[in-house]
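Predict structure. Chain length: 71.
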Amino acid sequence: MRETSMPDEGAAGKACTGRLIAMATEEMTKQADVIPDVQKPCSNILVSLGERQVLVEIFFLICIKFLDSLI
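Prediction complete.
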């Protein structure tokens, strides 16, 4: 299988990626109950973005959500 590289996203692409990460983490963490119809697609988005090397940003936003709930 041939690996393809993604073109440079530019500022607009990075902003869009950041917004997707923020929205997906928000939806996954705003309910204490497990809601698969909402959380599974959000999880899929984060996994897909994580495969594109944005793991640090995803991890950072999830940590912020959990820290906010502890305070």
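Summary: Residues 11-70 form one domain.
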